[in-house]
Amino acid sequence: EVQLVESGGGLVQPGGSLRLSCAASGFTVSTNHMNWVRQAPGKGLEWVSVIYSDDSTYYATSVKGRFTISRHNSKNTLYLQMNSLRAEDTAVYYCAGRLGPTTPFDFWGQGTLVTVSS
Amino acid sequence: DIQMTQSPSSLSASVGDRVTITCRASQGIKNYLAWYQQKPGKAPKLLIYAASTLQSGVPSRFSGSISGTDFTLTISSLQPEDVATYYCQNYNSVPPWTFGQGTKVEIK
């Protein structure tokens, strides 16, 4: 059974930093495409970032230059380093795994809440 | 970026009713379209992929169809457990992979 478990969310001041983690079991982070998707309170889903199995990365325009996606293969864990946080980054952050480039987001974690506020 | 326009934003129907949600892509995405169901406080759940393929374990009352750049999710007989928000998503070859705005389905 595939499990993705996010952690690291919390309250942070504007301009601050936070690192989210997504620990995977039953699913290999290094050989699949891993994503972060966020959902602001009461709003829809927004794709944030992806890391491919070949280590290439892509970001939504809204977070480019501020967020960094990475993974630790031996820990089978995905990360999202978030810097220069803004109020509009407040959201539940989900990690989501894809089995390949032509598959949808097959597996989702339960999400972790990030609140950016003074 | 490809825009996904989903409608309606909300609907209310009776148990047993047929419910239809539509999603239009701003450009061609072939059949790289998924539908997700999200219940309050929960993560999205994949229902349909490749526009019309039912994910394993999803009830057969859910179906998807495609006509050009227009996509449809149909619930043939609405059940109380189907109360949720439904999202379409383009997962075409390159990011960003955009979602529709969501459709909140309620029981009348």
Supply the key terms.
heterodimer; A: about 120 residues; mainly beta; 7-stranded mixed β-sheet; 4-stranded antiparallel β-sheet; B: about 110 residues; 6-stranded mixed β-sheet; globular
Describe the overall structure:
The complex is a heterodimer of chains A (118) and B (108). Chain A is mainly beta. Chain A contains no helices and eleven strands. Chain A has strands at 3-7, 10-12, 18-25, 33-39, 45-51, 57-59, 67-72, 77-82, 91-98, 107-108, 112-116. Chain B has 108 residues and is mostly beta strands. Chain B contains no helices and ten strands. Chain B is globular, with a radius of gyration of 13 Å. Chain A binds chain B through residues 35, 44-47, 50, 58, 60-61, 94, 98, 101-106, 108-111, and chain B through 32, 34, 36, 38, 42-46, 49, 87, 89, 91, 93-102.
Beta strand count of chain B: 10
Q: What string, H for helix and E for strand, traces the elements of chain B in order?
A: EEEEEEEEEE
- Give me the secondary-structure category of chain B: mainly beta
How many H/I helices of chain B?
0
Query: Order of strands in the sheet with the most strands of chain B?
Result: 2-10-9-4-5-6
Report strand % of chain A.
over 45%
Which residues of chain A form runs of ≥5 with pLDDT under 50?
Answer: none
Strand percent estimate of chain B: over 45%
Largest interface: A-B, 21 and 23 residues
Oligomer: heterodimer
User: What is the mean pLDDT of chain B?
Assistant: 96
Largest sheet of chain B: 6 strands, mixed
- How far is the first residue's CA from the last residue's CA of chain A? 40 Å
Number of strands of chain A: 11
Low-confidence stretches of chain B: none
Largest sheet of chain A: 7 strands, mixed
What separation lies between the terminal Cα atoms of chain B?
A: 37 Å
Structural class of chain A: mainly beta
